[in-house]
Amino acid sequence: MRSTLLNKVALTTGTACLLTAMMGSAHAEPTGYDQLSFQTEVKEEVQNDEVRASMYKKAQATNAKALATTLNTSINNAMKIAKRYPSVTVSTGQQRTYPRYDKNDKIIGWTGQANIDLKSTDFAATSQLIADLQETLVMDNLNFGVSDDKKDALEQKLMTDASRSFQKQAKNLTRAWDAHGYRVVNVSLNTGSNYPRPMYSSMNMKAEAADASVPSQSFESGNSTISVTANGTIELTK
Q1: Distance in angstroms (rounded) separating the CA atoms of residues 5 and 91
Q2: Residue 96 domain boundaries
Q3: Which of 104, 113, 194, 230 could form a disulfide with 225 if both were Cys (CB 3.0 to 4.6 A apart)?
């Protein structure tokens, strides 16, 4: 009588690999027997080449119109300053306004905040722009990452590496199971990124800077890890 052997084996070959083996007969098309499912991963650490920052103006006024005038004037002036730095992309960010109440729940004024967001691969220009803007705005956060162009190029390379790693693992498993060869039942490639935690400026919780100009800051961008995993199933052939 023909018997079917079911085994579940956990393998570790540089990356965690979940292996489910079902031994039986092999045919030209996938049969559901003699199949192994596993995962391989490749990753590369790269230097961050993009800086992102958010800055804001916070103000209070007795009425909403006066508050809007103050915030809009401040943000418009910031945008004019930013035009001196064409290598830095500047966009309006979050804006919020809320009332202030007295002890009798009567509105006595308004508080508002308006943000602008900066993004660039030109660290020197961004640092100087931030210094210029800190004369009237407050730093909210500052962080570094990998630009889309650099990330896309690296992911293309890692997809090829992950595919080769998957094929190499498939060949190793084929030999381990004393099979003649294998066919791919399915395989998927998935990308992932591990960015450093945001770096918050020392100005984060301070009030607006004084009239004196603010010196620019030297950036240390750090590194990020880009990874690609290959998940799939192969079927052994006898």
Answers
A1: 62
A2: 50-145
A3: 194
